[in-house]
Amino acid sequence: MHSTANPIRQKLILAVQEQDGRSAVDDEEHLDYSAGKVTIIPDLKCWERKLDEANELGQTVVVKFSATWCGPCRNAAPLFAELSLKHSDLVFVSIDVDELPELVTQFDVRATPTFIFMRDKKEIDKLVGGNQEDLQRKFDPYCQEK
C-alpha cells in the first residue's frame, strides 16, 4: 500500500468515497483520479451527449486524453480532478486513448496526456504534456470569463 500523506491524494480519496459512496483503493493502479467533476467518457454516444449538453449551456469543455499505462497522465490526474472541483463552470471529461481511437485521430492526439479545450464543439486550445504549472496556467483565460 502507498502512503496517503499527499494531501491531494487524500482529498481525492475522500471525494471519491463521498461522491459515489464507493470505497477508493489506495493503490496507484486502482485509485480513481476521476474524482470531482470529471466525467469518464466510455463511448462515442456519451461523448456526443456531453458535448451537446455543454454546447446548450455555452460551457467550455476540457478534455484530457490519457492512458492507464502513462506515468505523466497519472501524475497530472490529481491536479485535473482538483481543477474540476475548483472550476464548476467548465465541463471536465477524460478519454482513454486506448478505448476511443476515433477521437484520438479526430483531435490528432500524438502524446499523452493531451488536454484540449473546446467551445461550441470546436477545439479552441490545446496543451500537450503533463507539466502541472503549464496546465494550471492554461485554465486562467477560461476561468476569468464568467
Compact description:
The chain has 146 residues and is of the alpha/beta class. Helix content is 42%, strand content 19%. The chain has one domain: Glutaredoxin (3-Layer(aba) Sandwich).
Describe the overall structure.
The chain has 146 residues and is of the alpha/beta class. Helix content is 42%, strand content 19%. It contains five helices and five strands. It has helices at residues 7-20, 44-57, 71-86, 101-106, 132-143; strands at residues 38-40, 61-66, 91-96, 114-119, 122-128. The radius of gyration is 15 Å and the shape is globular. It comes from Panicum miliaceum (Proso millet). This is Thioredoxin H5-like. Residues 18-144 form the Thioredoxin domain.
Proportion of β residues? 15-25%
Instruction: Specify the CATH homologous superfamily.
Output: Glutaredoxin
* Distance between the first and last residues' Cα: 42 Å
Structural shape = globular
Helical percent range? Answer: 40-55%
Mean pLDDT: 81
Tell me the domain tally.
Answer: 1
The CATH C-level name is Alpha Beta
If classified by CATH, what would the architecture be?
Answer: 3-Layer(aba) Sandwich
Question: Order of strands across the biggest sheet?
Answer: 1-3-2-4-5
Main sheet attributes: strand count, strand direction, barrel closure: 5 strands, mixed
If helices are DSSP runs of H or I spanning 4 or more residues, what is the number of helices?
Answer: 5
Structural class computed from helices and strand pairing: alpha/beta
Order of helical and strand elements: HEHEHEHEEH
Which fold name is given in CATH as the topology? Glutaredoxin
